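Bit of a strange request maybe. I'm writing a small parser for structure token strings and I need a real example to test against, not something I typed by hand. Could someone generate the tokens for this chain?
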Amino acid sequence: MPCMGTLYLVRHGQASFGADDYDNLSALGHQQSQRLGDYFRERGLQFEAVLMGSLKRHRQTFEGIHQGLGLPPLTPLVWPGLNEYDSHAVIHAVHPQPLAKPDTPELYKHHFGLLRKGLQAWMQGETQPTGMPAFKDFVQGIHDALAHVRDQHSGDVLMVSSGGPISTAVGTLLGTPFESIIEMNMRIRNTAVSELVFTPKRHTLVSFNTINHLDAPAYRDWVTFT
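Reply from user aminoacidic:
Good idea to test on real output. This should exercise your parser:
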């Protein structure tokens, strides 16, 4: 039988939604990340490699996980193809007018309604958001990261990314329509884990969007989506 490994796809901890710089973990985001590392340590996981995007929230999430693991230093491979799309550019492509900060339930709903509309248009090639790749190139960057894992590894691998790349990876593996990828993206929780087993030839989905590390009642208020 071919060697089989497991890829743990992790979404970053809670970021700073609504702040001037979203790309920083909140205080809770740091706690979520370390708790996930604690959970991995409790189960005896030792990763032979780590890949992550180049965003600050990816690095901060990895640092929290690593702290919880309590293992010797791991040097992650930074893979820009695992970076999130630019949500502001996606929305601007379908709604160029200025938007107020989403600081009320109504504005929050409006913001994510526009994001869904913008993602659909981008995925279908109807818009090209400023500063972003075409959707097919976005997908290729994610598939290249998965191919690297298959080619180079055979054990447990950690990959820290964002909701967009993770939902795209899972959705394209399953052959789901764009609408399903968008809805998966909107439902991925912070520090949620999706598991893919892999051989040199393919990845196969085992679990999606799990937060077993936050199942205890003490962590009920730690479950977030932004």
